[in-house]
Input
Amino acid sequence: MENLLEVIDLKVTFPTSKGRIRAIDGVNFKVKKGEILGIVGESGSGKSISSLSIMGLISDQGQVEGKILFNDENLLNKTEVEMRKIRGDKISMIFQDPMSSLNPVFTIGNQISEAILLHNKGVTKKEAVEKTIELLKLVGLPSPEQRIHDYPHKFSGGMRQRAMIAMALACEPELLVADEPTTALDVTIQAQILELLKEIQMKLGMSIILITHDLGVVAETCHRVAVMYAGHVVEETDVYTLFANPKHPYTKGLINSLPKLGSRERLTPIQGQPPQLYDDLTGCRFASRCPFVSAECLENEQVIAEVTKGHFVRCHKEVG
Amino acid sequence: MPTLLKVNDLKKYFEVNKGLFGRQKSVVKAVDGINLDVIEGETIGLVGESGCGKSTTGRLLLRLIEADQGEIIYKGQDLRKLDNESLRKTRKDMQMVFQDPYGSLNPRLSVGEIIREPLRTHFNMNKEEQQKRVKELLDVVGLNQRYINRYPHEFSGGQRQRIGIARALALNPKLIIADEPVAALDVSIQAQVLNLLKDLQKDLNLTYIFIAHDLSVVQYISDRVAVMYLGKIVEIANSETLYKNPQHPYTKALLSSIPVPDPTVKRERILLEGDVPSPLNPPSGCSFHTRCPFAEQRCKEETPSLLTVADQHKVACHLVN
Output
């Protein structure tokens, strides 16, 4: 399969009063056409910063280096005007919090048709409204003909997220970036939204980057997974290999930390806490919490390497 | 094992103003007739989705908010009938751990002062004794004694939750009500805190009421689990039974909605239609009938009561009973 998006050696730093924070430090991953890539990691691992870099939404203080190739064009070389055309049209995004990502003073119909009118010259308002109704039907909102006149406060959390998805799909994007799309929702609603995303992905054949902290969500929706820790991708492989044969000690630790339904066996947590990402970090960033740490890990930083076909790991022990 | 806490027909209705200038009054039945026996030394889990009344129940039990009806019987006396002074004394036995480790610690107090506060108000201890006890407590929850003079902002989420637990333990309570204690934490830290809670329970013979929305967490830590929906308990059973043999359609749907971290498992998923109805305007009869795939005419008319189906297993569903 062809690569739709390729992120090469991406680095993002932010200035703080205590020095520069290396939020992302040399991240590589690919998204193939028609695939769902999951990015998992805990708070501060850099998963959201990765997605914001793809969208060109990093604030001015942030320094972005590296390459983000989308259909072989580097998005980091685009001007703001060019990016604006790509955002919402070729790449669109849905956010965690459906409450604050909709504008409370415009109707749902208004907000969705805005995207259609902006990106398609020559579409009339009437056509845009029809398309909006069609989109809302696609995302399974009941009686969309009436609901387009409603304001966001009349929608429940799940319905708002459906509306957000409809908006993101308005221009039939090639890539959808979903940043924790179900974290704010209850489990039964989460199940509905995840089913919807999978269904839409099949129907429209687009690619999705699904960012989440929940390994369960990854296992049920994604084709391939990148695990992030402290600004690095530490492991990348297909979803079956990741759960059957995790290689990086962090991935293993994460899987062991999860309570499993139906089992009350004692959990094995990862000891300690993630490091702070200031400039003076040396060696492997997981070293302070890793049960298999050796002198080598503290001194040299390992680069990510392919251990078996399609399975990338960033660990001295596995790569040798 | 003796019963530590007995809850009979507990109700809490909130009045809300609606309409223009709030002239219309309507009622949210946040907790609508809950019966619960908490046995000494056990962990009982309360699960449900947002708005099901699980947190309100936790607060009612400590009288942090006052119930409208019902009894909360602890050591033979009804907590709702106690005057302020005797309530204050009884509360020593019951402590709470809150969800938000950022919001529940006073940022102006050092860790030592936070943990010392309950000791000051409840025990007649001198400074040295207090200091000694605070250090002991830091030890118990796995925090370094050196941190005693630091302030909450210097700690991570997991460490703050440990401070909150130390504060709750300061008075040697019998019962701890933990309201979503791990929901704000990352998985690797969540596991640390869950293990800590389990160890403390064994060492100090604590009883927990563990409130959470995450069924896999509740199932892991609890001996018994009560599933709540719109202010009512719809099913209560041993943790294992609930997982292996759920009876209520809502419990089944809830269980099947949880994403399992194993891509090889292909499950028959029960997808519920729509959202939880507004508690302002709950459905007639069984409050789950609007989303229940098996609902019959009877479910719309009669409210099912919580009946025993097997040993220690109660369900509120017409189709089961």
About this structure: The mean pLDDT of chain A is 91. Chain A touches chain B through 47 residues (CB under 8 Å). Chain A has twelve helices and twelve strands. The first helix of chain A runs from residue 47 to 55.
